[in-house]
Amino acid sequence: MLHPSRLATGMLAGVAAALVGGAWQVVTRQSTTTTIAPPDLAILRYGIAALVLLALLLRTGLLPRGMPRRLLAGMVIGAGLPFGLIAMTRTMFAPTAHMGVLMAGASPLFAAVFAWVLWRERPDRWRTLGLACMALGVALLGSKFGTAGHAGAWRGDLMFLLAAALWAGFTLSFRQSGLGAWQGAALVNAWSTLLLLPWLGWLGSEIHLFDAPVRDLLWQALWQGVLAGLLGLWFFAATIARLGAARAAAFGAPAPVVSALGGWWWLGDRLTAVDALAVASAVLGVALASRGIPGRGDVPRQ
What we know:
Layout: H1 4-32, H2 38-52, H3 54-60, H4 69-79, H5 81-90, H6 96-119, H7 125-142, H8 144-147, H9 153-177, H10 181-203, H11 214-243, H12 245-250, H13 254-267, H14 273-289
């Protein structure tokens, strides 16, 4: 049985992780539809985090000894620059409620499929039920009822599904890598920053990061590089350490709620009845699926 103080700190960290994740989606959409474009956000998101974690990277190395290169590639593609650009660019076309449901709901679906194909891991009944609820939420947004209130949202929705698949690839690659959370973050951000350099050279004059208002620039630097890139990861890692992986996964459930309500309140995104039903379905699915995640990660570290 968990000590009350350990349970309390784990729950607080889990709530904080969900708030950061959901709010990041709102803040990113606010930026990409106003003053700062996705390529500029990528500089802040990966460059700042890479600099902060540089000392750790120097100890880990860009190519950790004994780590298969395919796992490193899966981590960088799944959570690094390719994932970030796809997710951030598509926020211009679809509301945050869609991003929250598709990212939180579809990613576990892809992960379950990948795990079954690669390792024949079969989910138990609780996880199967949860995955079914997530699939229902995704299907609702993809139906004619889900797209009726958001003209052109399908362009963003398809890319959110691709981003969810990439994130699932990162999740499985990281699980197999044997790295710590901060080591993984250092590698993903460092490699993403290196990938940014030739890409920025190709874009050339299309980069307008410092043309944005100083207030917007500082606001996005705080959210992209510090809160989402560093603290959000720390909060989630702390939740896993105190509560175990299965319980920590349940705290992903509030993220779609935060993104949907935040987009409606702050950005004026239309929130339809189908959006609300899809969010509820995704939240229930994540909560149910978290009860059926087996493995050593379910045991809190002492």
